[in-house]
Amino acid sequence: MPEMTILGWFHTVTGVIAVLSGFYTLYKYKIISSEPQIGRVYILVTAIVAGSALGIYNQGSFGVAHVLGVLTLVALAGGYIMERYQWFGSFSKYFQALGYTSTLLFHMIPAISDFLRRLPLGDPFIDSFEDPLLLNFHLAFLIIYFVGIIAQMIWLNRQTAQ
Q1: How many Cα atoms are found within 13 Å in the side-chain-facing hemisphere of 111?
Q2: What angle do CA 90, 94, 99 make, to 5 degrees?
Q3: CA Rg value for the chain
Q4: Cα 48 to the center of its chain, rounded Å
């Protein structure tokens, strides 16, 4: 595994801030929104993390992490558009939740991949992207994501009904 660059460290530290603020926002408000300050922090820091991911080439070329960075920027833009302009009327809040919450999944996939490939130092947990441990983490994150999206949709539907 290549050494961490200054951009890599910046990306990692801001990524931790993004993930923590995103999960806190979900915990406190049930959805990610730009209305509370912590939601704005999450959205801004996530945009910075996704943008910085596009400048990291430790695998030698444009790869999965770059695709996830682009998807994150698209999901952020979609969530923001749905929140601000409500192109789909009352359904916009569902698309907002889907967009913003998807960014957390897009954070977690490369985060766990990099973590397991780097630590512990000198004897990392995995040495390939096909390792069953990594694939099981990805599957677990995907399941958690779907359960979380369904819970948000139910919550949003109940808020509308009240």
Answers
A1: 20
A2: 135
A3: 17
A4: 12
Render pLDDT for 8-63 as a digit per residue (tens, 0 to 9): 999 999 999 999 999 999 999 999 999 999 999 999 999 999 999 998 876 667 88
Beta-carbon count within 10 A of 96 CB: 25
Three-state SS at 121: coil
Residue 125 to residue 101: CA distance in whole angstroms: 28
The b-or-e profile of 80-91 (16+ CB within 10 A means b, else e) is: bbbbeeeeeeee
Cα angle for residues 82, 85, 91 (degrees, 5° grid): 45
User: Is 25:34 a contact under the CB 8 Å cutoff?
Assistant: no
What angle do the packed helices 64-85 and 92-118 form, to 10 degrees?
Answer: 160
